[in-house]
Amino acid sequence: MSNWITPTQADVLTVMAGAELDAVRSQALADGQTDPLPGAISEIVQLVRGFVAASATLSSGETIPRKLLGASLNLIRDRLLSRLPIQDLSNPDRTAQTKAAYDLLKMVRQGDLQVDTADDPITTETASPAPVELASSSRSHFSRNSLNGL
Hints:
Strand order of the largest sheet: 1-2
Mean pLDDT: 85
Helix content: 40-55%
Shape: elongated
Radius of gyration: 25 Å
Low-confidence stretches: none
């Protein structure tokens, strides 16, 4: 089993009712808009990876550490439901879960919570700075003595 995974629609359905997801995918669309689920998943995956990158090596692809799946799903749910003009969908329990998800990500960023080792670590090479060469030099026209008294 991989330590890093990509959240799927089936995963999202563990934190949302099917009717809620269907409403987001069909009712909350303007003309020409496509299914918002893939975009929401990708956006939250990138957000989570940003927090993880502060303290751990990332795995390749649009993957997140398995132990952050629950927090990620809560954030995906929050993002999707915010598209609907219904306030009742954001109940105190869901609000607390969203806050807890961000708190968990902050712990990861600070290194207080370790994530699983990357399955396929991304290696980044740091480019060395280019050498600086002085092209020309000019002699100062003013000196401490010539400006004395100004």
